[in-house]
Amino acid sequence: MAAPPARARADYDYLIKLLLIGDSGVGKSCLLLRFSDGSFTTSFITTIGIDFKIRTIELDGKRIKLQIWDTAGQERFRTITTAYYRGAMGILLVYDVTDESSFNNIRNWIRNIEQHASDNVNKILVGNKADMDESKRSAKTNLNVEEVFFSIAKDIKQRLADSDTKAEPSTIKINQPDAAGGAGQAAQKLGCCG
Ligand code: GTP
Q1: Ligand 1 pocket member 47 (CB < 6 A)
Q2: Architecture label for domain 14-160
Q3: pLDDT > 90 in the chain, percent
Q4: Which of these, 6, 65, 70, 162, has the minimum number of CB atoms within 10 Å of its CB?
């Protein structure tokens, strides 16, 4: 019997890499813990460098494996954490709704994204600690936490599906008279992300 295609053997249809960034103490680790383990802690153990967790969700009948990287907000880890921007397909920009400076700093985090992440990376702004304010999202109460991760995952899945279908016409071009130029270009585009 023929072996099943590689895709069918994988335990997911899409692998999506997400990154959590924002000032120290805004609740990035708590958001991730809430989303991946369904738990919350009031103790503040600052992230050292970088950490990640996995959760597989289902969207439109597809299994989406989310690999979520939690960065340290502290300045002293910036060199380590920015190295992870490049591989991210989506970035969650987190601030604390009770801490205005964490919101003002979002512009600096966006600058970091512009400098270090891929141009087409998806972004979502998350105002955390809503239980302490009248806002929208909180790791403590689980308010809208699922919605945030599902929303960005859905957009990225759509983007990946769109680029899959767009890639097809460039394969067909190989058989056309101007194949040399066309195929060369297509190879460059498809092979750029190794
Ligand atoms: P760094 O790792 O230093 O970048 O910090 P962080 O952004 O990961 O913050 P962390 O998740 O460790 O949370 C910091 C503190 O905020 C902890 O004491 C949490 O208990 C608290 N916290 C996080 N989310 C919430 C929330 O939704 N509501 C409330 N009230 N407190 C929260």
Answers
A1: yes
A2: 3-Layer(aba) Sandwich (3.40)
A3: 66
A4: 6
